[in-house]
Amino acid sequence: MMAQNIHLLVCIHGLWGSPDTLSELTRFIKAKYPASSTGEHLASDMDVDILVTRSNGENRTYDGIDWCAERIADEVEAHIMNIQANGRRKVTRFSVIGYSLGGLIARFLIGVFHSRGFFEDVEPYNFIAISTPHIGSPRYPGVLSSWINVLGPRLLSRSGEQLSLTDRWSSSQRPILEVMADKGSIFFKALSLFPHIHIYANAVNDVLVPYLTSAIELEDPFVTQNAVTIDLDEKYQPIIKTLSPTVTPPQPPCPQSFYKALVLSLKVQPLFPLDPLKFLIWIFSPILFLPLMVYAIVRLFLDTRASGARIRDLERRGARRASAPALLNCTHILKKGTDNVVAFADSAQTCVPTNLNLPGGMMSVPSNQPSLTSKQRSLVVSLNSLSQMHKHLALIDGVFNSHPVIICKDVGRIEAHKRGQGVLRHVTDTLVI
């Protein structure tokens, strides 16, 4: 009797996340591929098995992209051994979906697997990243972005340093994101093996992972109000179907304070009648804001200290896999033959998605455009060289932070999070099994 072919789909949450973060995503996938929930194979050549990773719950995501990926590599290998234990099922295809920091962990993970020869027996298939900071944290105009860039490396341990590109990961003292985007690295080679690469990004209102880094672009056409005309996909709303430059001159955006944006996102009206809960939020939010901020900073500081101690213990015990030196060395394999990506980035004007026409071609960066470093620009150019990569933008307006909405993080308690369901339907229908 021939073994049933299994397509393993690994789902990875992001910073501060848990498997529950991806519950709505997995619900959509299981609805389309019921074999993944029943455990019984369908009358087809390929069944789907979904693994939602549990290795990096809560503050363990502070420990860095590399450590998180190596934990997941162990978890995936154990899961595959369990699948194939009785000889009746065999994993023959591999796909991965990463949300937020999980997308970067996924990119490191496939590099680890590639270095171990995993893809010699298992076919890489779908790579999907949803609201992932591929080029780290770009600096947007405004206080909130400045806080994130200043406090991130200090309060998010190793992961914060890696997202700010201030870490020195490789033997050449390069940041891990730069190494992962190097065309000669094992990570880039692994990513290029996937025939179906899809990138999902929020066009607006993503406080944690803004457009430039999640869409892997050099310019943000959405920072200027009414600069583009948008046509949404009726089937997958809020997915953007087409974009075109606005004919009339755009009006400059009115400056909006952080507190005002937060209140408006809650849709709290300053006049009666008011929902009692929203009225209380409107009254007490200025009073509670400062204590909550202090609590958050103290909690981040304590979690960062715990992460640092955990990392030192892992390194002291030599827990890093034997494949790690190979990963380091692979970054220099094609050093002589690789193009000068930084020089190319400096001369590039824009990089556009393969399925959307974004307005671009600006020779100089306007004052309202985000600021990218030369390293970040090089990452954009390198990653956009992947011809099989497709980008999909979501327009989720009227909320303070669209980052949790795109993944429908908590639809049970927050009604607004249901607005991301069109994105999850698109992800599910995009999967090639």
How would the global form be characterised?
globular
What's the quaternary structure here?
A: single chain
Distance from first to last alpha carbon: 23 Å
User: How much strand content do the residues show?
Assistant: 5-15%
Q: How many E-type strands?
A: 8
Helix content: 25-40%
Largest sheet: 6 strands, parallel
Average pLDDT confidence is: 80
Q: What is the H/E order?
A: EHHEHEHEHHHHEHEEHHHHHEH
Descriptive labels:
single chain, 433 residues, alpha/beta, 6-stranded parallel β-sheet, two-stranded antiparallel ribbon, globular
Brief overview:
The chain is of the alpha/beta class and 433 residues long. It is built from 15 helices and eight strands.
Structural commentary:
- With 433 residues, the chain is an alpha/beta fold.
- Helix content is 39%, strand content 13%.
- It has 15 helices and eight strands.
- It has helices at 23-32, 35-38, 65-83, 101-115, 143-155, 157-163, 176-181, 186-192, 211-215, 258-265, 276-316, 323-330, 341-347, 374-383, 421-430, and strands at 4-12, 47-52, 89-99, 123-130, 196-202, 228-232, 240-245, 389-394.
- The chain has a six-stranded parallel β-sheet. The chain has a two-stranded antiparallel sheet with strand order 6-7.
- α4 (101-115) packs across α8 (186-192).
- The radius of gyration is 22 Å and the shape is globular.
- It starts with a strand and ends with a helix.
- Mean pLDDT is 80; it is low at 267-272, 321-326, 328-354 and 357-365.
